[in-house]
Design brief:
Layout lengths: L1 H18 L1 H14 L14 H15 L10 H16 L11 H20 L3 H28 L17 H21 L3 H20 L3 H17 L3 H18 L2 H8 L8 H19 L10 H4 L9 H4 L10 H9 L1 H25 L6 H20 L9 H21 L38 H4 L1
Helix pairs in contact: 1-2, 1-3, 2-3, 2-6, 4-5, 4-16, 5-18, 6-7, 6-8, 7-8, 7-9, 7-17, 9-10, 9-17, 12-15, 15-16, 16-17, 16-18, 17-18
Length: 461
Amino acid sequence: MRDILVTLFVLGVLPLCFRRPFMGLLVFSVLAYMRIQDLTWGFARFQRWSFLVALVMIAGWIAAREKYPPVRSMRTGLLLFLLVWVGLGHFFAYGEAPVDSAGFIEYGKIIFIALFTTAVVRTREQLRILVWVITMSFAFYGVKDGLHGFVTGGGVHIIRGPGGMIEDNNDFALVMAMTVPMLIHLATSERNPRLIRGLKMMVPLTMFTVILTRSRGAFLALLVALSALVWRTRNRMMGVLFGVVAVGAIVVFSPSEFQERMSTIATYEEDGSAMGRIRAWQVAMRMVEERPFFGVGFGRFQTSYLDFEPNPTPSQLDGHGTLVAHNSYLQIWAECGTPALLGYMLLFLASFFDIHRVRKEASRRYFASWILSYCTLFEAVLATFLIGSVFLNRAHFDLGYHLHAMVLVFGRVAFEEMTDSVRYPVRGGSGGPLVASKRRGFDAGSRKQRGFRTTPLAEGA
């Protein structure tokens, strides 16, 4: 039954995706992030629905009479540079292993969707809808698994995510940590009381889902997300108090297995998993030292691992386990070289700088609170991803690149909106030119005096 519903849904929205490419981007986001196809058990689970939707929305964008090209900026240039550089690296790859063409195609798709986002998301409302869709796609699993863990008293151990790029429990946990500031942003920016209550209920459940994964890196990333939100709150004392209460609740009510795993952070020398990560980092640095320009090649870290490990373990020699860098920055450095790492880090630097510029300008104007709210959202989510990536292989994570595109769109929309000095007057300024405003509704006639005074000021003096 689920297979039929998913199939009917995707096929039914294809005409809409063609007529309105922005709607295609929303459907693609649901398939890529919520992965409704992984909730089925039959034929629909193995279909490439997102690829089909991508083809249709691209065709619709090309056929549209009015369309916009991707935004031209340093960040779009960096995205294209990374794609070209990674492609060139295939010709200078290390070893005799076959080229990871499937992985490179997936990486190209990620870059393309990021560029496509800058072309079809043009307004504040479209950005809001996209943030809603992405947040709810992830929050679905945060609420579902959080409720399951609450009912079982924390006895659930999430060992894998729904699928795709968040199938690994550590990757899934990082996404849940990034979802927390998204939910808080929506809860503080919406006006519907029912929506606000529902969103606020989702926050602790999603935080609990992070705990159920037992991921130490994601837990540290969650602390960074909360710290970023507290730092930007209007009342920092209340924010700090909330953070202390939240962390205290985690310590008191979290499963004993989680507490034991977190305690190994201080005694990492005695933890086999932590020492394995350190050895992987050392291997990655040996790859960088020998091949600093193009690296060992995209997707070749595992096949090249033993050549750079002087003391492999018996299980590694037998081919058991997955050999990864356990660090996104070392991953892209070892596989794609120093220029790729610099381009990757410049993306984050440019996004944070853009957010800073927008925040600085919005702070000078009245009625720009929604802009400041988005600044806090993107700061917190990007900071969470940056810290979580220290412990995870997420250099080629689609949401990371999508975030850069969304920040780029947000910066453009925010500055375009703030050019209207009437809607967003400068603080302490004249407020812009006066404009006529027609009264509507019951207030269309003469405005009556309100309050205790019923006479003009001159007569009542």
